[in-house]
Amino acid sequence: MTRYFSALVLALLTATAFVVPAQAHAELKSSNPASGATLDAPPKTVELVFSESISLPDGDAITITGADGTKVPVTQANAVDSTITATIDASAAKSGVHTVDWAAKSADGDTVTGKFTFTMTVAAQTSSSAAAPTTTTTSAATSTAPPAAAAEESGGVPIWVWLLVALVVVVGVILLVRRRKPAETP
Known about the structure:
- The chain contains three helices and nine strands; from the N terminus they run αβββββββββαα.
- The chain has 186 residues and is of the alpha+beta class.
- The protein folds into two domains: 2-23 and 160-180; 28-155, Immunoglobulin-like, CATH 2.60.40.1220.
- It has a five-stranded mixed beta sheet.
- Strand 6 and strand 7 form a beta hairpin.
- It is elongated, with a radius of gyration of 25 Å.
- InterPro entries: CopC/D, CopC_dom, Cu-Rt/internalin_Ig-like, Ig_E-set.
- Residues 127-147 are annotated as: Disordered.
C-alpha cells in the first residue's frame, strides 16, 4: 500500500510541475489613460500594455461607459505584441467617471478581463467649438497605470491552485482510509 501511495503522490506532483508554468496569463501592466487618472480633455485613444504578447478577443477588446451609463464609441482596436490600442470618439465623452472594461486573449488562448476608471473634468467639445489645447491632451496621454491598478484586473484563479487543492484532498482521503483500515493479521 505504501508503494501505491508513494507512486500516486509522485505522479500528482509530476503532473502539477508541468502544468504550472504553462498556465501563466497576460496581466495589464499599464494603461493610457491611467487607472484613477483625472483628465482635462477626453482622450483620443486608449492604450493597454500587457506583461506578454496578446491578441484581440472574440468580442469587444475595450468598452468605455460614462457616468450616466452611456457607451463611448470605440473603433479601430488593434493588438500589436503586448499592446492593445483603440481609437475612441472623444466628442461623445462627458464629464465624470468613465469605466474602461477590457478583454485580451493570452498567448495560451485564454481570455483575461478587467476594468479600471478614469475621470474627466471637462466634457468633450463638439466639432463646431474650438478644440481643447493639445498640451492638455498630451499631458493626459503620457500617464501610466500605478502598480495598484493591476489588482483590479483578474483573469480568475489559476489552474495550478485548483490542482494543488485537489492534490491535498486526494492525499488527505488516502491517509484517512489508511488510518481507518484495521490492521491485517497474518
